[in-house]
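User: Before I run my own analysis I want an independent prediction to cross-check against. Here's the chain; please return only the structure tokens and, at the end, one sentence I can use as a sanity check.
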Amino acid sequence: MEIDVNQTILIVVGVDIEPEEADRPLAYKLKSVIEASPRFGGHPFRKCIVISDALYEHDKLIQVCPTIAIGGPGVNAVAGVLVEKLPVYLSKNNRYFIQLDKDFIDQKISIWGMDRDSTAESIEMFIANGILDDFLKTIWG
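Assistant: Structure tokens:
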């Protein structure tokens, strides 16, 4: 599969059993929201792909793509890097965190919670607060 590193959004989840069970389904829900966006449609090189943190770390080329890490630094190696790199943009009672560069100069985002429910809530807030729309606007115009 060919990807355009400027048009492809990667959603990265951890590779162990816990993130596969808890975070991967959430990642696919987010993928479906992205693919339903009017900004997504009709452009052959626009893709949204869910991958593991192991694949992401192994392939330097795809690390250029706009990226959303789902799951905390304890279960997602990409989130483990981003937790030190990105500021917290939104959090709630130290239960969930959305980390990003508010100007999207760095097109990496980390979304995670202390458990599956709080991670799901953080994704809902990412969408409901318009953060996803702003991210897509930055990437796809």
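Sanity check: The chain is about 40% helix and 25% strand.
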